[in-house]
Amino acid sequence: MLSHLDICVIFDLDGTLVDSEGLCNQAFLDLLPQLSATVESLIQRYRGKKLAPILADLESRLCQNLPDDFEQHYRQRVAELFSRELKPMPGVVEMLEATNFSKCIASSGPPFKIRQALQVSGLAPYFGESIFSSYEVGSWKPEPGLFQFAANAMGFRPGQCVVVEDSDVGIKAATAAGMQAFQYVRKGETSSCRSIVRFDDMSQLPKLLAHFAGIAKF
After folding, report:
1. What is the tens place of the pLDDT at every residue in 128-168?
2. Which end of the chain has fewer surrounding CB within 10 Å, N or C?
């Protein structure tokens, strides 16, 4: 087991640690059968984005206003899908077992969604109470505020932190926060971010983190 206490790993959740992107976007298709789209196209369009602009985009695409209670029904549908189908991303459990760095979750999702995802996927024990939500902090990616808040709460400076993200907006937030960013890009997917460390297999991450811990100047 690798061990180093001088860095903090800030993990995104959806699409990074848990395989939730498909379920979150399937919920849109379930509730909006008139929407002409595939789950895959919605993932690419909305990955990492705040829900409010996503709903505004859906209204624009459908040329109609969504019902006032749509967000409530959407959250309920996502929770139903999570309870039945949510799983960790491939190799995540083994990766977490293989590292012993300080770590936390920094997610744009609301706290109840984060906690449900961690419980259902079996990842909750790895993070305890080290969970930070944009809804509590008041900052959404690509703004750097969520990551800055998480680092401060964990007792680390930005230069001591690695952010592990799948979305381009998350990578932009990490860069703006002055943190090292590692982007998880699944095989067959692409990223528009440049000069970023990318990996496509969670088994690669422990070595990347150990290398950063060894060369980072604190």
Report:
1. 999 999 999 999 999 999 999 999 999 999 999 999 999 99
2. N
Q: Which two tokens stand for residue 88?
A: 């960790």
Which residues are bridge partners to 9 per DSSP?
A: 103, 162
Q: Which domains are seen in the chain, by residue range? A: 8-19+87-215 (3.40.50.1000), 21-85 (1.10.150)
Instruction: List pLDDT tens digits, range 19-78.
Output: 999 999 999 999 999 999 999 999 999 988 899 999 999 999 999 999 999 999 999 999
For residue 158, cis peptide bond before it (omega within 30 degrees of 0): no
- The answer to whether the CB of 143 falls within 8 A of the CB of 48 is no
